[in-house]
Predict the 3D structure of the following.
Amino acid sequence: MLNRTLPPEFKTIESIEVLQANSSKLNNGIPVYSVNSGSQEITKIELIFKAGMFYQDQALVASATNNLLEAGTKTYTANQLSDQIDYYGSFFECSVGQDYASIALFSLNRYLSESLHFVEDILKNPIFPQEELDIYLSNKKQKYLVNSQKVNVLARRRFSELLFGEKHPYGIDVKTEDFDKVSRETILAFYKKYYHSGNCTIVVSGSLPPNIQDILNTHFGQEAWGQAGKVEKAMPPLTPTTQRQTIVKKDDAIQSAIRIGRILFNKTHPDYFKFQVLNTILGGYFGSRLMANIREDKGYTYGIGSGLASLVNSGYFYISAEVGAYVTKDALKEIYKEIALLREELVSEEELETVRNYILGQFLRSVDGPFALADKFKAIWEFGLGYDYFDAYFHAVKTITPEEIKALANKYLQEKDLIECVAGNPS
């Protein structure tokens, strides 16, 4: 009988096997990556385009285009599309990020082709009705104005501008007047430039039907569709602020939102893996030093964290927190104190081993199931990396030393290199 008075035996993770995606192409050349796994007869099909915010020439265009794809086609109204997809027990969603935009369908295998009929129409024949655009912009503007009263939103917006520059695609902050500049013609032009077979990649995952390739060919691979053309955009120059400290004043705020960070690198950089270990120690999990000090010991915040954001054309390190306005200066002092300790003192082997096991445990959880495995694939595909990336990551986490962590902190976390942005009414 199981003795529940004894804790389970502790085991270290020695290796992790990641099921790899298979690659193929449709008849018209669209690349397809498939993860065939799982026991439930459900398939996710995601069509991905280089059509994120990096590619827009004015604010809001990328997100408006992506979100309004399902607002009606030449054949069906928005309600008809929604009703028909629901009828087959399927789920459809659009998403847009800094670099990529996508549309995805979750469907029972038995109704996959029927559901894809409507996804195909959404993708190939959207009409972007003016009335739907007006409603979308009105709702987005109202939400924007409400969020503009929140210090964490104000800090996030300004921090991006400070990091990349106000005119850089990664740094552009939406302004109130931008909502009045978006036109149906602008959206149509963006759609035609980026939503076509020459700019499309398909990722399918789940317990895939044997004829999945034929189904995809029927709907998306028979011939080139859209105004196919080469999609390129040069990386604009970064123009980060030379001002180390910035305050976004909000007189009635009872909290301050803090953002501290700097331009760094993405996951293609050789220091990325080991810096992730450093970041986890500092603020990357609930047991981090920042949490232990500023939440648990000082009680200045409900939560504080740090991260390393990886973008296709750049990357950045950040620390974020919301603290009481009256303890803003004290919180900042403690944040810089924890960074200085990483530069000056070696991390103990005990703390390092705890963080190693946490990182590897989180990785193990993140490859559980076909959809998660597909997300893991996309995380390397976006950067032109292969599956050996995960082996290198595993090796770096297992072998990093306290001396290497201290050297990384001294190389990348000097206080003079960090940009600080505080939104609120700090005292």
Observations:
- The mean pLDDT is 93.
- Residues 130-147 form the longest helix (18 residues).
